[in-house]
Amino acid sequence: MKIEIPVKLFGKDFLIPDTIVNSWIILIILTIFALIVNSKIKKAEAGEKPSGLLNVVEALVEFVDGLVKSTMGPDKMFFAPYILTLIMFLLVANLFGLIGFTPPTSDYSVTFTLALMTFFLTQYYSFKTSGFLGYFKNFTEPMAFLTPLNIIGELANPISLSFRLFGNILSGVIIMGLLYSALGYFAPILTPVLHAYFDVFSGVLQTFIFAMLTMIFVGGAMD
């Protein structure tokens, strides 16, 4: 299913692609989900064991907290809400193909934007931790003549991070599209197993990898 929005701006016609529209849909879904959870938390009793939706949310929060604590350190737990938000968005975006929509992460502009967020967070915390002189001195280590390579390596991080996510999700979309075209009416019978791999397994795995690399990059900059 493709939902594209034509827009006329400054006398020119533009088309907002379905991947961007789907990103907005996911943001709306996650916002409504957060409001529902917030409402349930306010009504819940502090001494009672959570059940239903709150139980699932608590398990997810504890998982992310443990992940941040073991990867970045207990002194960086303030970063957990961002990682939880990132994981939830990527997980829903990567699995969006299961309900017939184009996954937003199959669009490089989406994955590159997410990678740039990681890149700028890394640079910000590196500058904040090391100071003005220390930030630029980091590029000269361990030897000054390696400075160009260190700069290139730093700039390559968002490119490699975005291409890894984009390539894996897009390849799944292309392969499944070709199979549906080739199999025709038999596609619903033969493709569920492939959906389990290309959409579910690959989507969850790429979400975990992106979140882990984000924590490693930003945590390393903080240290």
UniProtKB/TrEMBL annotation:
Protein location: Cell membrane; Membrane
One annotated GO molecular function: proton-transporting ATP synthase activity, rotational mechanism
PROSITE patterns, per database record: ATPASE_A
Gene3D superfamilies recorded: ATP synthase, F0 complex, subunit A
Mode of membrane association: Multi-pass membrane protein
Any Gene Ontology biological process: proton motive force-driven plasma membrane ATP synthesis
SUPFAM superfamilies: F1F0 ATP synthase subunit A
Sequence intervals crossing the membrane: 20-37, 79-102, 108-127, 165-188, 200-222
InterPro entries per UniProt: ATP_syn_F0_a_bact/chloroplast, ATP_synth_F0_asu, ATP_synth_F0_asu_AS, F0_ATP_A_sf
Record bears the keyword Metal-binding: no
Primary site of residence: membrane
GO cellular component terms attached to this protein's record: plasma membrane; proton-transporting ATP synthase complex
Keywords: ATP synthesis, Cell membrane, CF(0), Hydrogen ion transport, Ion transport, Membrane, Transmembrane, Transmembrane helix, Transport
Function recorded in the entry: Key component of the proton channel; it plays a direct role in the translocation of protons across the membrane.
Family under the similarity heading: Belongs to the ATPase A chain family.
HAMAP family attached to this UniProt entry: ATP_synth_a_bact
Protein name: ATP synthase subunit a
Protein source organism: Anaerosalibacter bizertensis
